[in-house]
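Work through what follows:
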Amino acid sequence: MSLINTFIGTPLGWLMWLCYRLVGSYGIAILLFTLLSKIILLPLSVVVQKNSIKMIRLQPEINRITAQHYGDKDTISDETIALYKREKYSPMLGMVPMIVQIILVLGLINVIYNPMQHLLRVDAATCKTFVAATAQLLGVSELGSGAQLKVIEAMRDPANYDYFMGLAASLPGVDVSAIISAAQSVNTVFLGINLSQVPPVWPISLITIVPLLSCGSTFLLCWAQNRDNVLQKEQGFLSRWGVTIFTVAFSTYFTYLVPAGVGVYWIASNLFAIANLYFMNFLYKPSKYIDYEALEESKKELEELKAKDAQKKKELEPYKKQEKEDYHRFLSDKEKKQLVFYSEGSGFYKYFAGMIDYVLKNSDLVIHYITSDPKDAIFQMNEPRIKPYYIGEMKLITLMMKMDADMVIMTMPDLETYHIKRSLVRKDIEYIYTDHGVSSDNMTLRTHALDHYDTLFAVGPHQVEEARAIEKLYNLKPRRLVKVGYGLLDEMTEAWENTPKVPHEKKTILVAPSWQKDNIMDSCIDTLIEQFLRPGVRLIIRPHPQYVRLYGEKIEGLEARYKDKLGEDFVIQTDFSSTDTVYSADLLVTDWSNVGFEFALSTLKPVLYINTPMKIMNPEYDKIDVVPFDIRIRGQLGGELGLDELQKAGDMAMDLLSRPEEFRETIQAVKEKEIYNLGHGAEAAGRYIVRRLEGKKR
């Protein structure tokens, strides 16, 4: 309390003294003090109002980040923090008014409890002497927190005048008579209420009106904020009114613990805060800066996702027993585990399929296959040497910490960086990362995403070059880099080569963008449709499934705009049950989607890349002197256009379509140069697995 008295109480005491000197009434001085404090803090109110408006203005983008990465808390957090930095928004600034209010209340309590020091300007040593003398007068050892109030009360009794004047001898240089006179002039009664007294819970008297008015004014303030505060009115109903109930209850309870003067301050502060709220809304009208329509749309999108997530959790309920049994079965299996695969979902088996087939055919290894999808197709496989387990995302955290195996293979980055950690049981497990694309890991994965893997299955030379440069940059222990290739690309190539080729009467252009921010669908789809709708062309728009899921109303809007042109030669495709459309197209148009690489490298047909803003997961990607594969290779697989060059898109597309043989040769050459072990990627991975584990067995 001494710090509060020194650094907060003293300056507030001077302000209170000034107010008291101006009006001569203790109660009115408190009201004036409250008003002046609000005026002094007006610049802070302006800063907070602007910050709150900025927060709500950013909310649609925050909601879309949440929707785009729904369930991935780490990515949501990273991208939200990046957004705050970009927009110079401080989440903590909203706490400042509350902190200031607490400081003012603590300071005011100190001022009210110490009127001799703050209102009468008596020095601390003299105050201490009077307090000790009053305690002796009253026959107590100490006076408690309201000591100076009791001193003034004692001095106001004429019968004690001679007693206090007797202290003059022990206080040389102090005008004791003047202090007594000043103390007798202090009237702490306001509207019949003694503001130096603490309101009792019982009996009820006139002073009880202070806690009641505190309760009412606090409720009024909360009601106004819930209705018109730019930040609070966007909070959920339960959150708003839950805080209201707590605040009203606390403020009522609080005013029964402190002198009534503090309660008067609290009442006045609440009323002035309401006036300040509407003044700020007048000064900086929120609707002038905030797109409330976009905000409501983003809320709706997020609510739909939450509803789907809730439904998904409900669907997973019947599998809780299976998860528990599989968790116990995995950990209680005493047989030595050599090989474990972890799959994030049913669709990830395709990345492991080739290497698993090789392991089954060329060894006697037992495969333990963990999946976070209870409907994973792995449970339908009738292979005795594959032991499948369903482990949900939460139980996976502890399972991985208890992992006991020779080798764990995953497609999931960020091992050890976020929630999934390396085993605490065994330190010699070989963790292997296998890619699910040919992209630059340095640009498309987060910073340090692969630092804690022991081995990386490299798709091509670009990944090896990046990995070594990253190790050097961050002084990492060198990892094993196995030149594997990309088994899934081999499978796609084989499937395409075995597909009957029927020449199209009309050249088919497929627009298949990503779903990242500012993708083709959001930035330039109308311009591209205008460019590609021409005689002799069949145009198919195939948005990313996630985009359709999140922005169904935008797809409906697109269909409505072109309803008169839709037909056999112009299709907007939202049925993703088949990929036939993708690989049968003559030309693919995309932005930064991996489908461009898969299409070109498996079919040897060209891609037209639209250079929308890049999605860069690693902001430090340019710290190494290696141009990312995704940037370097685009022009070699077809053509690329900037957003300011879209008027050339139609002519460039026709030019690319006119040179199929040239691109077959060019893309095949790129493929041979950029991808390891063409046609044998899965075999190369499987061979490494078997060799490593057979060696450990011996």
